[in-house]
Each structure stands twice: as structure tokens, then as C-alpha cells.
Amino acid sequence: MSTSGHRAGVFKKPAKPHKSWKGKRTKGEITSDNREFLKKLATCDETIIQTHSPSTIDFAIPRFKSRLSFLTPDKENVDAVLDAIRASDILCFLWPLSAELSEWDEQLLTVIKAAGLPTIVSVVPGLGGISNVKKKEDVRKGIEFTISKWSMTSAGVMPADSVNDNLQLLRTLNETKKKPLTLQSRHSYMLVENLETTDVMDSERFCTLKAQGYLRGPEWSANNLVHLPGFGDFQISHIESAVDPHPLKASAKSQEPQILAKADEKRQGLETEIVPDAMDGEQTWPTEEELRDAEKEMRRVPKGTSSYQAAWILEDSEDDEDDEDSDEDMEDEDEAEEDDEEDDMEPEDLKSEAGETTASEMMFDDGIDEDINMAEVEKYRKERENAQWPDEVDTPLDQPARIRFQKYRGLKSFRTSTWDPKENLPVDYARIFQFQNYKNTKKNVMSKIGGNDVDSGDAVIEKKFNGAYATIYIEKVPVSALKELNERKHLVLFQLLPHEQKMSVLNMTLKKHPSCSIPITSDNEQKFIFYVGYRQFEASAVFSSNSPGDKFKLERFMPTEKTFVATVYAPITFNPATVLCFRQDDKGRQELVATGSVLDTNPDRIVLKRTVLSGHPYKINRRAVVVRYMFFNREDIDWFKPVELYTPSGRRGHIKEAVGTHGNMKCRFDQQLNAQDSVMLNLYKRVFPVWNYSLYNRNLNPSRFVERSRVESISLVNDEEAMEE
To answer: 32-72+90-179: what CATH class?
Structure first.
């Protein structure tokens, strides 16, 4: 059985916009440069047999005893470019002689690099037509410098002008060592060339989808699920052979379809999440073993105390011993502090010195420009405040601090203090799956890739059919999805690995893209568009620090320079897998905000939100200090008394007792404080992402960055034309 040829993705990278860019090209339309390039390539050898399909232009080359399929996506359609690269063995760039790229080209290269690059071949049409040897060499060096600047490995720059040049290019495309993507080496995939429907059930509005194309990657299994981009995961009934529409040699023999693989009782289910039982959280009567263990506990209680009374007696005394030095230093000042300075506390003392009032008056001026997004202006202000005073929060005046921060706790050491990962979990955690040992499960799954599972039976195709043209029967596909699937020029199907249809907590290591200058907050209202491997979905994310340890600090804003970890509810994905993160503004435009890769699938990752309460040292007597403005009543001071205090200069201390009834408190530190010091108190609580996962099946629109660059480029061209006139 003959195997399919290599696929090469080809698209032109012009130097800058020109007049012909008035209006958008039709989806899937081949540009004139690509059409001319492939036309010259097809005429370099008279024996080449050229055929077409809705998604490819195919060459059968008897000279090299091989076939090549060319994908020519519209470079302004990000989804089409990414789909073409996922299905390609070679990525062929057509570089301009000037080696200059527009801002859109640069951002597209960033997206392509972040998504993963196969083997690269660089072609420069027109390079062979330069007669001056020195100028030709300069052009070559300029293009090679641009390629090296983008850190793209390439065998060199090839011309494509003469017949010999095109023959050499075909030979290079055929003989170049292929470097498959991780996605291609792990997942079976197919570039769909023909799509049909059978067994339409009007009552249930489902049908069986027949997808035809070449079987690529590891051996296909009818027991594994298949992913339809934008519509989810579906089961396969069977896989059968089909007549190859692009044969290397025409054959008069008619081939009857034969079943290559058929699903059996071991095929994967469509269960994505667990349906929680409402009775799981009910309190049960203790077992006899638990009662016996409780009776064995021996406690020292006063003589004559009953068992009921003993239950209310604490083992450890909660009374703290005061230092004698502190009492001597402060005993003359207690009564004075109770009455003085408390009544003098005015609202001006509690105002921030950052000038927010003036900024707010300016922002809400009646004459403000309507195009300004006030929500983004507010994000800029909050990001600036957070950078100046990280995680600081004003103690509320209208409610007690012990109520406002009742979900928070103090930690002696963020690095060494323990935090139970199973404590106070949200209800959504009852719906997800978790591996008992992620590394062992991943190792077991990877060992069975490519038909290495001895228990697979007839569900896996034989190796000799790998690369054959076949038909996949996909069951229970919604009829409403057919129209959009048929409109996609480059529809790529991927098979799932075991467990990849199940929902869990996905952690991704990301870095903010330099083109994104807008502050991105880690809140539940902001939904992001994630491209994770072969999946596209929308979800809210929680940002945390990318650091060693078992606890990780929440990042209120997406860091600009350093890497961070985004945590979302999403289907299980085994690392490594590439990640692209986009945001959508209120006008429906998308912008690339971050790129990275999957870290792991771990619901036990502890992300802690830190809140810092600050106070002012009112009176300092050696190591004894009276602090005010951190709390405003005696009960709050007693509540937070066990939490350690610190200062920005590195002093450590703790609360001794409350002074008066207005929130002043006596504290003691390890060293003497300065009058300029502030007293801080850290509180932590665990945060979780929000369950708002949804599939994303809309094409990416040009980003805001791209629209601005186009306007600037077009206006620049028009200005140059006006100057010439």
C-alpha cells in the first residue's frame, strides 16, 4: 500500500502593505504570489501530475517516486495558518528580497513559533534574477540575518527562478529530514479532504460524519475519541479504506473498501466530568473503630471532672506571657494612649497619597473621549498602585476586620508552613478528575502510543495502512455543526490520548507578549481564548508565581517580564503542549496576550492570595511600639493577635495587647524601629479558578495591534505617494 506524500505549508510574507489590500480576501483564497509560485513549480518537470482537493494542491512526481501536497492558507487568517502548520511536515516561507516584515508579519511569526515549527525551508523568489554577484550575496545575507534573528533553524536560502532551481527545491522538499511536532508524534491526525454525512436522525438532530483523508501520525485506533475543532470530542464507529484520489501511478484495478479498524467494547466513553452526589457531604455517625480510638485518648483534667466537662477543657494554655521589659517601658503611657490622639484621627490621615481623587475627577470629566475604555483606565491605575504597594488593602471602617478577612489566615513562613491541599475545596472540585500519580499515568499512556497496546485487538489499524487514504465514521455529530465544518478549508482531526476528554485543573506556564501593553487582571470576569495543542476554548484563569515550593502566590496582574502560571478548568492535556492565550475586548477584537506551554494537570496546586494590612508606629520606646490605623477596635486586635508582624526594613514582631478601644495596640519587635517604618501584617487565603469553560469555534479576528499597524502602514504609503506626486 502506497503512503501519502509529505505536506508543505506555503504562504507569502510581503514586505509591507500595498494598494491591493483594499478589502479582505475570500477565506481560503490563494494569493497571486503563491499561485504563480506553484505554477512555476509544477512546470519544471513534464512528468508531474497535478491534482486538486478542497484543501490541497497535490503533485505526483514520478522522477522522485513521491508525492507532495501543498497547503496555501491565507496569512491573514490565523486559524487557517495554525491548522495548516499542524498538518504539515515542512513549512516553506517565501521571503521578499528586501527581507523587511510588516508588524502583522512579525506578530504572525510570533504566533507560529509559539505554536510549534516543523522543518523549515526558506525560498526567495527573484533571488536568481539578480545579476550582480555582490548585490545577490548581500540580499542573501540580509534574509539569513532576518531568519537567524527569529531563531528559526533553516538549511539556507534557496532561489526559485529557473527550472533547475525549482527541481532542486522539489528534491529538497522530498529529501529534507522531517522534524515532526510533538503534537504529530503523539496524536494520530488527518487533514480532511472530503466530508459527507450519513444516517441523519432528524428527531435527535444527529448524524454520522464521514471524513476522508490520509491517516497520519501514530496508528489510528477506533477505540479512541476524535476531536472536531470547536465542537468537542466524538466516538468512532469504524475506519475503512478508500480510493486514493492522488495516486502516484494510475491503476485500472478497482479497490473494494475494507474495514481497517472497528471499535469494540473497550472504546473510550464521552464522560467529561463527574456528577457529584449531594449526599457525599453529609455528616455520618462515627464508626466503632473511630469511637474506640477516641476512648484511647488520655487527657489530664482536674479531679472530679466528668467526661462531658473534659471535652471543653483545652490542653494548651492560650495565655501569652508578656515580656517584663515591654510592661516597664509602656506602663506610664497606657492611660495617655487611651484618650489622646484617638479623637484627633481625621479622614485626611487615612487618605492615600497617590492622588487617586484627582485622577478620578479627571477620568469622569464630562468632556472625556467616548473611545476611551474606562475599565482599562481603571486597570492601569490599579496596576500602578499594586506595583507601588504590593497587595496592600485598607482596613474597612464600616465592618470589623475579623469579618471582612474571616476566610484568611496567617502563616509563620510562606515557604515552610503547611497548608492541606484537600481543605475547604469548592463544589466544582467534585466534578473533576485527578490522577493519583500524574507522572506514572503519563508514562503509561505514552508507552501505548502507536499500537503498542497488546490488548487493543482489531481496534488499531495495521502499520502497513499507516499513511493510507481512508474514511473515518464519526458518530453522533450535531447536524448544526456541518455547515461550519464544510466551510473550513483546512479541517484537521486529532485523536485523543486516554483521559484527555476528562475535565480537571490545567496549569500552564506563560509569558506576556511584548505587543500587549494593557494590564491583564487575574479576576473571574475576564475570559481568555486558549489554544492548547489541538484544542481551542474559552475560560477564566488564575495567575500565580512560577517558583519552586508547594505554595504559590497569586499574581493580581499578569507579570510583564517574568513567567507565570495560569490555572484553569479544562480537559486533561499531557505536557509538553504549546499554549496561545488571546483576550477579547468589548468590541469583539482579539489580541495575543501570552504564549507558553502546559505545565501539568494538578488540582492540588495551592494558589494563595496575599492581603497586607498596614499600620503606623505612633510611639516608639526601644523595641516596644504603639501601632495605630491597622485596626479600629479592640476585638479585631485580639482576633489577629497570633499573626506575626513585620516592617519593610526587616524587623519582626508580634502584638502584645490592645490599648484603649479605638484600635491602638502595643507591639514588640526584635529590634528598634525607625519613625519612617510601616508595620505590616500578612493574611492568606486559597483561591480557585471559576468554572466557565466553553468551546471556542469562531475564527480569530485581526487584533487591535494589527489594526493600528495597518492604519499606520497604509497612511505612510499614501503619504509617500502624495510626496511623489
So the answer is: alpha beta
Cα 503 to Cα 720: distance, rounded to the nearest angstrom:
55
Which residue in the block uniquely carries the three cell numbers 504549546? 578
DSSP string, 467-503: T-EEEEEEEEEEGGGHHHHHH-SS-EEEEPPTTTTSE
**Beta strand extents in 189-235 (DSSP E only):** 189-191, 194-201, 206-214, 226-228, 232-234
Sequence ranges of the domains in the chain? 32-72+90-179, 185-269+466-495, 613-681
266: helix, coil or strand?
Answer: coil
DSSP string, 499-524: TTTSEEEEEEEEEE-TT--S--B-SS
What digits encode the pLDDT tens for the residues 535-575?
A: 999 999 999 999 999 999 999 889 988 999 999 999 999 98
Grid coordinates representing 136? 545577490
CA 326, 329, 332, 336 dihedral sign is negative
> Is 191 in contact with 55 (CB distance < 8 Å)?
yes
3-class DSSP state of 264: coil
**Which DSSP state fits 180?**
-
Amino acid at 477: V
Closest among 548, 546, 530 to 538, alpha carbons compared: 530
pTM assigned to the model: 0.78
Going from the C-alpha of 513 to that of each of 236, 520, 582, the distances in angstroms are: 39, 11, 10
One-character DSSP codes across 681-696: EEEEEE-------EE-
Architecture field, domain 613-681 = Beta Barrel (2.40)
Range 185-269+466-495 has CATH code 2.40.30: yes
Q: Which residues contact 356 (CB under 8 A, 6 or more apart)?
A: 381, 385
| Inter-residue contact 126 to 98 (CB < 8 Å) | no
